[in-house]
Design goal:
The protein is about 30% helix and about 20% strand. The protein has twelve helices and 13 strands. The chain is globular.
């Protein structure tokens, strides 16, 4: 149990590697307040040797803070990890608290962090299991179970399939995915907001006429592009990262996403950033399990949940300044 992350503090001499058992889910909160606070936060974590890297199975978040090149590269969180429009506004807002720094999202997660400091991707890459592939285009049992949309261009026609599985599991099926197009109900036009108020976590477009597959995704997808290329031999594979607009363009705007208003997204971010985040006390969970005569062993690293102490008044002050700068930049 945990939300594991690797954090790196980088300068011209090299990098220091840190580990946190819990902060992957709170990283957007922990890193928002500017470089000085972020550096202090990273140094609070458990320092590791250079073999203390998490792999793509266990790393749920992470960050590189490069103090010499003024670069911040990170991924993680909860809301912004899955919601692309929310993340875009967050990154624009965060840029106001990191002036003169370049702030980037790590689309390949821990791989991007490793390669930033010259560590080969094979050190952190764990290959996915082919058994997870989904070859059927079944619709969700309930409309609000939808997670992504597959669009297909076949003989000039665009077909839309609402899907409840994970994007990568459909992609790993390869061209066999085309076999089910005639078996399921397809839509000639699809408005995502008619099914759910949640924003999709990904989507893919299969152009069977030209043998091109394109996909986008919200979450980090370490190694997925190369794995998709291997599953779709003789096809051109395009990865649009988090550009969901690309799927609408490829479907000739017959796929319509509803993007919330910026003010609504800012309100959601303000609530997230001003909330009080309490350290997770795993000993309480262990005590409850022990009451059932269960044998409980706690990883010593799970006993630490080190967050930067920053009172709400100071956070409010920083956030107000960031919001003012954000709105000024919009006009």
């Amino acid at each position: 149990m945990g939300h594991r992350a690797n954090l790196l503090l980088v300068d011209s001499k090299g990098y220091d590697l840190f580990y946190s058992h819990w902060c992957a889910i709170t990283l957007p909160y922990d890193l928002f307040w500017g470089p000085d606070y972020a550096i202090t936060f990273v140094c609070l974590q458990n320092q590791q040797t250079t073999d203390g890297w998490l792999d793509t199975v266990w790393a749920e978040g992470g960050a590189v803070v490069d103090v010499d090149r003024k670069q911040l590269l990170f991924f993680g969180g909860e809301s912004i990890l899955y919601h692309v429009p929310l993340r875009r506004v967050y990154l624009q807002l965060q840029q106001q608290t990191w002036p003169d720094w370049t702030v980037n999202w790590a689309f390949e997660g821990i791989i991007d962090l490793a390669e930033y400091v010259g560590v080969e991707r094979k050190i952190v890459l764990s290959e996915r299991d082919d058994e997870d592939q989904i070859t059927r285009l079944d619709p969700p049992e309930e409309r609000d179970w939808i997670q992504c949309v597959g669009t297909f261009q076949i003989q000039g026609n665009i077909l839309h399939f609402p899907l409840s599985g994970l994007l990568e599991d459909y992609l790993m099926a390869g061209p066999h995915l085309l076999d089910d197009c005639q078996n399921q109900k397809a839509y000639s036009q699809f408005r995502y907001a008619d099914w759910t108020t949640e924003f999709p976590t990904g989507g893919f477009h299969v152009d069977a006429d030209q043998k091109i597959i394109s996909f986008w995704n919200a979450t980090d997808c370490p190694g997925l592009f190369n794995q998709v290329k291997a599953k779709w031999p003789d096809w051109n594979v395009n990865w649009a990262k988090d550009r969901f607009e690309s799927q609408s363009e490829l479907s000739h705007d017959s796929l319509i996403f509803h993007v919330p208003e910026t003010d609504m997204l800012l309100s959601e971010l303000e609530e997230m950033l001003l909330a009080d985040h309490q350290p997770f006390d795993i000993t309480k969970l262990a005590d409850r399990l022990a009451e059932d005569n269960s044998t409980v062993q706690i990883n010593p690293l799970a006993l630490r949940d080190d967050h930067l102490t920053l009172d709400k008044r100071k956070r409010s002050q920083i956030l107000r300044s960031a919001l003012a700068a954000f709105r000024a930049a919009e006009h």
